[in-house]
Each structure stands twice: as C-alpha cells, then as structure tokens.
Design a protein that fits this description.
Elements (H helix, E strand, L loop, with lengths): L7 E4 L4 E4 L10 H6 L3 E8 L8 H17 L10 H9 L3 E7 L1 H8 L4 E4 L4 E4 L3 E2 L5 H4 L23 E4 L7 H18 L2 H9 L5 E4 L2 H8 L5 E3 L11 E6 L5
Parallel strand pairs: 3-4, 8-9
Antiparallel strand pairs: 1-2, 3-6, 3-7, 5-6, 8-11, 10-11
Helix pairs in contact: 2-6
C-alpha cells in the first residue's frame, strides 16, 4: 500500500486539502481534486441521553475508527470499499460526525460499516459516500448536539503511545474535535512506512488524544510532525492549527 508522502495541507471536519508529491497516487493539483465528484467519510457517535460517553473517549474512538476503516481489507486493493476510499482520498478527504441514539443507532448499525468501541464510547464508521447522496438513515441524523465532557482529566499518555495532540488555543465542539482527531490519525497513517502501519494495525491502533500544554504545543507545531490546519468552514478561523499527530515512529 502506498502512502501520499509528507503532506502540507488544510484539514477540517468537512474537508482536507493537501499538496501531494508528483509520484503520489493521489491527484497533485487542487483544481483537479475540486472538479472530481466529492465524497465524505461518515462517522456516527452513539450518545444516549442517560449515558453519554466521555469527550476524550469519544475522540480517541473516532480516531481509531478512521484507522480501522483505512486498514480494513475491504478498503484495500480490490476490496468492496476500495473504489469509494480511493475516490474519497483522490478528492478532499471530508469527514462528518453525526450523533445517534436508540432506534437511530440501531438503524445506523444495520448499514455496511464498522463499529469501534472505546472504554464506553461507540463510533460507527462507514465507507465514503458522495456528499450529495447520503444513505437516508444517516442523512437524517443530527450534526449538532455532540457536546461532551470529561468527568475527570485524562491520565498522562505514555511516551511509547501515539498521541494526537489537540491545540490548547482552539475551542471546538466534541463533534468537530472528533473529526479533527480523525484527520490527525489519517495523516499519521499516511506518513508511516508499510511495516509501521502493519504493526499499528496488528496492535489494534492504540492511541491517545490529549490537549497539549501551550509551550509544548508551540514546539509540536514547529517539530515537523503531521499537522492539521483547518480551512475555517466551521467553528474555527481559517488556517488554525488544530492537531499534531505524534507517532513514535515519526519522531
């Protein structure tokens, strides 16, 4: 499996743009990507009124869900989702997070996709769909209402664990932050060697999502690791740096 190589780009919960190298399997020109049919990666988080997941748990589970789909056999080579995944990555890699509960969640689970569980969070990721042709049971779900809290501060992440560092300077709703964490995980996936991707997949994609202390955040942004820059379509100003993907193999 080939990766696009080091990326310089713009990432949001609705679209990600990047400049790929000339030998990349992805289109090297923004105008060509924009003219292609646009696809979106749908993610649905289960939020029951009586027992919503913790925010960090939801963010980590969403990031792992993106990785699970990217590494799934159905997304690779001649797999049944491979064409949709290629079309999605050839354009702008949009992600949209919606919420479901009760019967909505059961209907979402009946659609082709993968449910990934965290400590309590459940996120279902689906193969990419055209932005203008969502399955009706997903299209009717709400984007708003994904504000979540952590009942207590998350524990410090171990130094050997991949960490998606969230900006301490940019406030985001949980849904927005889940998509951003997914972008960061995907940029890290693309940067890794085939061997490192295989090792991460075999370990079931361990990772942590944490908010960086301000001083450490400034170092991370300058450190050459995969960096998500938001296009500013929703919630934050254009060009905002939102996530740095700190995988041990990329240090």
């Amino acid at each position: 499996m080939r990766a696009p190589g080091r990326l310089n780009g713009v990432s949001t919960d609705e679209s990600t743009a990047y400049t790929a190298p000339e030998d990349s399997p992805f289109r090297p020109r923004d105008d060509a990507r924009d003219q292609a049919r646009q696809f979106v990666l749908p993610l649905v988080v289960r939020i029951e009124r009586a027992a919503p997941p913790a925010r960090t748990d939801a963010l980590e589970t969403a990031a792992r869900a993106v990785l699970v789909l990217l590494g799934d056999e159905r997304s690779l080579d001649d797999g049944e989702w491979a064409r949709a995944v290629r079309d999605w990555q050839d354009a702008r890699i949009r992600k949209v997070v919606r919420r479901a509960r009760g019967a909505e969640w059961r209907r979402a689970e009946a659609l082709p996709g993968i449910t990934v569980t965290g400590r309590e969070a459940e996120v279902r990721v689906f193969p990419p769909v055209p932005v203008d042709d969502w399955p009706k049971d997903l299209a009717r779900l709400q984007v708003s209402g994904t504000d979540l809290d952590d009942p207590e501060p998350p524990a410090e992440a171990g130094s050997d664990l991949p960490v998606l560092w969230m900006s301490p300077e940019v406030g985001m709703s949980a849904g927005k932050a889940m998509a951003q964490a997914g972008h960061g995980a995907q940029l890290a996936w693309w940067e890794l060697s085939d061997a490192d991707r295989a090792a991460w997949r075999e370990a079931c994609f361990p990772l942590a999502v944490r908010t960086a202390p301000p001083g450490h955040w400034r170092e991370l942004v300058r450190g050459g690791l995969p960096l998500v820059r938001d296009a500013g379509f929703t919630e934050v100003a254009p060009g905002s740096c939102t996530v740095v993907a700190d995988h041990p193999a990329l240090r």
